[in-house]
Design brief:
Layout lengths: L1 E3 L1 H9 L5 E4 L3 H6 L6 E2 L5 H8 L7 E4 L5 H12 L4 E4 L2 H7 L10 H14 L3 E2 L1 H9 L4 E5 L3 H6 L6 E2 L5 H8 L6 E5 L4 H12 L6 E4 L2 H7 L17 H18 L2 E3 L1 H9 L6 E5 L3 H6 L1 E2 L3 E2 L2 H6 L11 E5 L4 H12 L5 E4 L8 E2 L16 E3 L1 H10 L3 E4 L3 H6 L6 E2 L5 H4 L9 E4 L4 H14 L4 E3 L2 H7 L30 H22 L12
Parallel strand pairs: 1-5, 2-3, 2-4, 4-5, 6-10, 7-8, 7-9, 9-10, 11-16, 12-14, 12-15, 15-16, 18-22, 19-20, 19-21, 21-22
Antiparallel strand pairs: 13-17
Helix pairs in contact: 6-10, 6-22, 9-12, 12-16
Length: 533
């Protein structure tokens, strides 16, 4: 491995060549300060997600930390797995800042900044929570489409809204709106997906008046209005007429934004070249549709989320992206936005899923090094029996948010890197059991414990998911003894337990301010199109 200076990295970023810039600190540390195009892959979870985000072993990789040595440790692991073009940012983010370059806070910053760029470029229309409430109370004809996934919608939504994730908007709007005079209001939790969703409908030429709800559900809450919770209303299914209308609208989008379509034969060529050029096959339909049948080698990346959080699906800048769906509508609309974000090689697979052998079930993710470990596993039933009769030490490797939502009874939250600390007093317990969401992280950690600490630990096979499937209950809430581990993730304003309203206001102010910050940074290549077309 080699070191690279901040100045050399800056040159590489603006070169337009393929590279992966990976920050290996915790999500919480990353959210406080990071480089604009850095992708967060915490060292503790490196093996779990690295191959999904950086699938080509010859990819030029730059690792970044805060100068603590985590980047070197990550490089050592990656070299063992076959990655061989690794540089480390000398001095980490501190050196970047000292060189006079911009440091960003938050997560998914390129996508968030792009949303603000779009609003400024196109003058995307919006209305406030107070204005929307007045229209609802007056009985005006409108439909509210929430552009977030159902998982988020269920937690809170504007009263009367329908769940219609971003890429679904053009696809479903004709069936969701009563007539062309019905106002369509697009919202999300904050700003980005509201703006992109609203502008998607406008770009597609929807005849209805369309507006974004300013500041989304946060703005609604801050205005003092109640949110619904626990709802699962989905926008209407697409009719034959609605599908034809959406396809007609997409023809103009293809021309305006230069969306490129490829045939299966061209995809096969890309796949043959994938050892020289990183390739991502992204299925932009819903996760449920993906599991019902998808192309081999593709990954589930619902279109709205792909635009909203591109760095969570693609870890290699300037790579090839091929978007897939069943009708072309969702892939075309998603591609139009990725093109505007500056991705040069974005393609839509013509014919989508037709005449292809499809796989079913969830995406098969490669966990680096997992096949080489062989931990002592316990089934959920065996662990339940131990809990009934003994006092085991159960260490859950979940992050703080995952742990809060559900963990095994009596479990304590631990980190992979801090395992030695948690095992100091293990002799007081008859058994030490490691658990994680699906068991993979626990298995990797158990192998390290047995090799480096010479301690015997057991692993819950299948993890917390297997425990739930076996019908056993989970406990909820934080671990009061976790201490500094509570800084391991970034908390959305509504995930906080205190100062929620202040956090919402600060978050919304942060989003708006990103446009000026990316202008100072100077490394984005967002593509403006004529807003009058």
């Amino acid at each position: 491995m080699n070191s690279i200076s901040a100045e050399e990295l800056k040159t590489r970023i603006v070169s337009g060549k393929e590279f992966a810039l990976i920050d290996v600190r915790t999500k919480g540390e990353f959210a406080k300060a990071h480089l604009l195009f850095a992708v967060s892959i915490p060292l503790d979870k490196l093996e779990l997600v690295f191959h999904q985000l950086v699938p080509r072993f010859e990819t030029p990789i730059i690792l970044c930390d805060d100068g603590s040595g985590m980047a070197e440790r990550a490089a050592d692991r990656l070299i063992q797995f076959g990655y061989n073009r690794i540089d480390i940012l000398q001095g980490g983010i501190h050196a970047w800042k000292e060189a006079g370059y911009e440091i960003f806070s938050g997560i998914n910053v390129p996508s968030k900044a792009f949303g603000e760029f779009v609003e400024q470029r196109y003058s995307t229309p919006h209305l406030s929570a107070n204005e929307l409430k007045a229209k609802i109370d007056a009985g005006e004809k409108l439909v509210i489409l929430d552009s977030r996934p159902m998982q988020e919608f269920t937690k809170m939504n504007i009263p009367g809204a329908y769940c219609c994730p971003g890429a679904e908007l053009v696809y479903r709007v004709s069936d969701a709106s009563i007539d062309s005079e019905t106002m369509v209001v697009v919202n999300c939790a904050g700003r980005t997906r509201s703006i992109i969703g609203c502008q998607s409908l406008i770009n597609a030429g929807v005849p209805n008046p369309v507006v974004a709800l300013k500041d989304g559900t946060m703005g609604w809450h801050l205005a003092g209005f109640e949110l619904e919770k626990g709802q699962s209303r989905y926008a209407p299914k697409v009719s034959e007429t609605g599908l034809q209308r959406s396809k007609e609208m997409c023809r103009d989008v293809i021309k305006r934004f230069g969306v490129q379509q490829i045939k299966v034969s061209e995809l096969r060529t890309f796949q043959k070249q994938s050892e020289e050029r990183s390739l991502f096959l992204l299925d932009v339909r819903s996760p449920e549709e993906f599991e019902s049948g998808h192309l081999a080698g593709s990954k589930s990346a619902p279109g709205g989320q792909l635009v909203q959080a591109t760095d969570e699906y693609v870890g290699v800048r300037n790579s090839r992206l091929v978007l897939i769906d069943d009708t072309g509508v969702r892939a075309i609309m998603t591609a139009s936005w990725l093109i505007q974000m500056g991705w040069e090689e974005v393609y839509v697979l013509e014919g989508g899923l037709e005449k292809n052998d499809l796989e079913t079930g969830p995406e098969q993710k490669k966990v680096l090094g997992l096949e080489e470990v062989n931990p002592d596993n316990l089934s959920a039933e065996q662990l339940n029996q131990i809990i009934q009769n003994e006092n085991p030490l159960i260490l859950d490797l979940a992050d703080s948010l995952e742990f809060r939502e559900g963990h095994l009874p009596g479990a304590k939250r631990a980190s992979r890197s801090g395992m030695a600390k948690y095992l100091e007093n293990q002799n007081r317990h008859s058994h030490v059991i490691l658990s994680s969401s699906d068991g993979a992280l626990a298995s990797l950690t158990a192998e390290e414990v047995q090799r480096n600490l010479n301690r015997e630990v057991l692993v819950l096979e299948g993890g917390v998911e297997a425990w739930k499937k076996a019908g056993y209950l989970l406990e909820q809430g934080d671990d009061p003894d976790a201490g500094e581990l509570s800084d391991d993730v970034w908390y959305k304003p509504y995930q906080r337990v205190d100062a929620v309203e202040d956090s919402m206001k600060a978050y919304l102010t942060w989003e708006v301010g990103l446009v000026e910050q990316i202008e100072r940074d100077g490394t984005t290549n967002f593509k403006p199109f004529d807003p009058s077309v």
